Amino acid sequence: MTVSGGELAGRRALVSGAASGIGAAIVRRLQSEGAKVAGLDLLPSPGADCQLLADLRDGAALSAALAQMEQQLGGAADIVVHAAAITAMGGVLDVEPGRYGQIYEVNVVGAVRLLQLCVPAMREAGKGAFVLMSSINADFATPSQAAYAMSKAALNNLALTAALELAPQGIRVNAIAPASIDTPAMRASIARQPDPEAASRANWQRHPIARWGTAEEVAELALFLASDRASWITGSIHRIDGGASVTRR
To answer: Is 152 contained in some domain?
Structure first.
């Protein structure tokens, strides 16, 4: 529920992947600073001021969802956070080729659709902020999640290119690259391992700060990048990884 006051008072935000995990935490944090937040997902987004049900792969459904947001929240988004993503486990030869396209369609083309739909209103207002949720895996060989890592590498390039194109119009585009974050999806992945406790310990040891990050910590960074405190930051990819990318051990 949106609170009165705060540094985002009067702003409207759209968060994809808002039903759980990092997206849900971002919804709560933006609301805590006064933004009205629309949660976009395939499932309801508990607590969002406006709940939008649409598939990022369906351009018509997405356009209708954004029209619903404008009607319910009184205008278009000033802030867009693209946290929705899908993945597939396996190396380059393990993942069926069609699955690559499905992952790219949500993780990357979904962000393109949001940009194309949301930029016109931001351009008219002369300002706006996009935050795209990437991954540190974009910068490393990742045999266990090859298709996902490739999509996030593409998302990073999208952030850089869009930032360059949109900067003259007062619109900023940045990305966040988390490592292992304590979310329901992460816990489910660990639970599928033959020895979940050993898998957890091994994962923690890949981070010099020996724990998983929290969705709330990622949400704090998203808030900063969406706010006026980051008004001179665009085209940047910000790691939040407990030091994992320093050693990649």
So the answer is: yes
Residue-number span of the structural domain to which 94 is assigned:
12-181+214-236
Q: Which one from 36, 77, 130, 148 is the annotated catalytic residue?
A: 148
Residue 148 falls in the annotated catalytic set: yes
Question: Can you say whether the dihedral through the CA atoms of 168, 113, 236, 15 is positive or negative?
Answer: positive
Ramachandran assignment for 168, one of left (phi > 0), alpha (psi -120 to 50 degrees), beta (any other): alpha
- Whole-model pTM? 0.94
For residue 131, the domain's CATH number is 3.40.50.720
Tokens, residue 130: 């996009």
pLDDT in tens, the chain (249 residues): 777 789 999 999 999 999 999 999 999 999 999 999 999 999 999 999 999 999 999 999 999 999 999 999 999 999 999 999 999 999 999 999 999 999 999 999 999 999 999 999 999 999 999 999 999 999 999 899 999 999 999 999 999 999 999 999 999 999 999 998 988 887 777 778 887 777 677 676 778 788 889 999 999 999 999 999 999 999 999 999 999 888 766
